[in-house]
Amino acid sequence: MKLINPGKIPAVWVSLIPFAFLAATLSIVIRVFGGSALDGASQVSLLLASGVVVAISMIFYKVKWADFENGIMDNIRSVSSAILILFLIGAVAGTWMVSGIVPMMIYYGMKIITPKIFLFATCAICALISVMTGSSWTTIATVGVALIGIGAAQGYSAGWTAGAIISGAYFGDKISPLSDTTTLASSSAGTPLFTHIRYMLITTIPSFAIALVIFLIVSFTHDVNSQGTITEFSSDLASAFNINLWLLIVPLITGVLIARKMPAILTLFVAVLLAAVAALIFQPHIVWHIASGLPVADYGHLSFMDGFKGLMTATYGPTGISVGNPALDRLIATNGITGMLPTVFLVISAAAFGGVLVGSGMLQSLTLALQKGINRTFTIVASTVGTGIFANMITGDQYLSIILTGSLYKDLYREKGLEPRLLSRSVEDSATVCSVLIPWNSCGMTQATVLKVATLDYLPYCFFNIISPLMSMLVAAVGYRVYRKTAAKNGKK
Question: For the whole prediction, is pTM greater than 0.70?
Answer without folding.
Answer: yes
